[in-house]
Amino acid sequence: MSEIWIEKYRPEDFSEVKGQDIIIDRIKSFVENQNMPHLLFAGPAGVGKTTTSLIIARKLFGDEWQNSFLELNASDERGIDVVRTKVKDFARTKSIGNVPFKIIYLDECDALTKEAQQALRRTMENYAGNTRFILSCNYISKIIDPIQSRCSIFKFKNLEFDEIVKIIDSITLKESLKVTDDAKKALFEVSGGDCRRLENVMQACATISKEITEEVVYSISASAKPKEILEVLNTAIQGKFVDARSKLMDVMYKQALSALDIIKQIQKEIWNINVSDEQKIKLIDKCGEIEFRLVEGSDPFIQLEALLAQFYMIK
């Protein structure tokens, strides 16, 4: 996307958050009443948590929203001292304006240490009269129960294909791009419902060509085509182990893929091969075992060969 598009983009309206209609409807009522509890946004990356928080601040405080809104990334500032200084100093001061509270937004708060979360719990309790907290995390299980009980919890989800297509169409219109139908499916596949990743891949594709095709998407995203992975697996199941190994190595070298990237794509394509459900379950289990070995530092090529051998043995 061009620098003009990036410079102009500022989230200002809830309509810009896609695929989270139920959550947005509830949050709109908080904004309309100019009153809300502490909020906890949980969900995967790139689905609108930060954008929603910024829109809340803009809707409540207007043009002077930055004076009543403090944003911190807890993964960079994750110690107890940050909670006791920056957060506490901002929370204890009164709000200026018609809205009776200020907002502190803590991004990636699941990276806060347990000690910092305990200190944050007391701060949320003591200054609830003039400060509201919006906490954002990927893994809600890493947030201690006392904080969860003090917040209204909203669980964001990955965007569906239709929502991703709407975003693609909006960007192509603004940037004068052309995206084929196969490319849209490929963009959804490589983004995994992550809007941020989608836009990054599209921007990279646009630097190559104004017409974005399936070939361009997979070459930019360092992903193998699903049909290539499926061909490798079917070749192994047919008993042609050497051919399957050669095809897999070609795919890895051509796309410069790591063994972990390949494992994830193999796991997705297992459900599309022509074997029984029981055999698919065994192969999925084997994928998990091979991934664990790779993370522990095992040789990637030996482990991938071992995985292909399991597909051969299934036959």
Q: What can you tell me about this protein's structure?
A:
By secondary structure, this protein is α/β, with parallel strands linked by helices. It folds into three domains: about 5-155, P-loop containing nucleotide triphosphate hydrolases (Rossmann fold), CATH 3.40.50.300; about 160-220, Orthogonal Bundle (Helicase, Ruva Protein, domain 3), CATH 1.10.8; about 225-315, Zinc Finger, Delta Prime, domain 3. It is about 55% helix and about 10% strand. The chain is built from 15 helices and seven strands. It has helices spanning about 5-10, 20-35, 50-60, 80-90, 115-125, 145-150, 160-175, 180-190, 195-210, 215-220, 225-235, 240-255, 260-270, 275-295, 300-315; strands spanning about 40, 70-75, 100-105, 130-135, 150-155, 180, 210. A five-stranded parallel β-sheet has the order 2-3-4-1-5, sandwiched between helices. Strand 2, helix 4 (about 80-90) and strand 3 (about 100-105) form a beta-alpha-beta unit. Helix 14 (about 275-295) runs antiparallel to helix 15. The longest helix is centred in the C-terminal third of the chain and has 19 residues, at about 275-295. It is elongated and about 70 Å long. The protein starts with a helix and ends with a helix. The model is unreliable at about 1-10 (pLDDT under 50).
